[in-house]
Design goal:
Elements: E1 21-30, E2 35-38, E3 43-48, E4 54-57, E5 60-63, E6 68-72, E7 78-81, E8 86-94, E9 100-101, E10 107-110, H1 113-127, H2 134-154, E11 157-158, H3 164-175, H4 183-189, H5 194-205, H6 209-225, H7 232-238, H8 244-255, H9 259-265, E12 266-268
Antiparallel strand pairs: 1-8, 1-12, 2-7, 3-6, 3-8, 4-5, 4-7, 6-10, 9-11
Helix pairs in contact: 1-2, 4-5, 7-8
Amino acid sequence: MPNLKYRKNTFVGIHPEPRPAILHAAVVDLKFWTWDNISSPFWRWYWNEQPGAYVERDGKRWELHPDFIVLVPPGIELSCHTPRRLNHFFIDFTLPKTGLLPPREPMVKRVDPVEKKWINAFVQGISAKEQAESWQLSNLAQLLVEHSIPCIKTQSSKIPESDPRIDRAIHLIHLQPMNKYPVSELAKNVGMSTCGFIRLFSRFVGQSAKQYQLSHWVEMSCHFLLNPSISIDDIASRCGFYDRFHYSKSFRALMKCSPGAFRKNYRVKES
């Protein structure tokens, strides 16, 4: 097992807001990565140890390269591609409210020596015969995300005033996906009429509440698909879908492939 040593994170303690929340971090063996117009309700942090893969939006391309980190803000549609098999390190995370609105396209940050050390420790820790403890890997992912916050802040603008009712609705969607909230119930929970809620949600989020829920469920299911011990039927149930047919249809509409194909071609790197 590699010797994973940690120094005090210089970014922890200087933020008045809470720390970012790490949802998932993994090194995956990409056999196939051709997804068109996918979006995510959370931030994505990408780094590849070999060049070749890229993300694309509106005809503009961002290469994934060993010398750079690509940060993808939530709620934007991207296409992802790779011409060959390679290893891909990703972190899904959320940020506390900062009053800043990120750009509507990915951000690129050059990897500095400190980040390179953390990246190597994570990759070695997850690839070793005796994998590093989960808390050690989580700590490394946390350090990497927090080290990217200054880049995010410098490329963000002041966020327009949001509506607490929409914030509450999004919180409910994320909190209990298995409740399958209909739009009318979401509206009732935030003290609005259904028609008024539909208009306000689309205005602030850029898509309907139903579309947002489906997108969130599908994106959440991708993490479960990385674990081969969880059946697709079980994933459908955990992530808010009525049954496997409903799940597969929704997944294919967003990800342009079946859940089974995603599991086969986008798997966690084995030791």
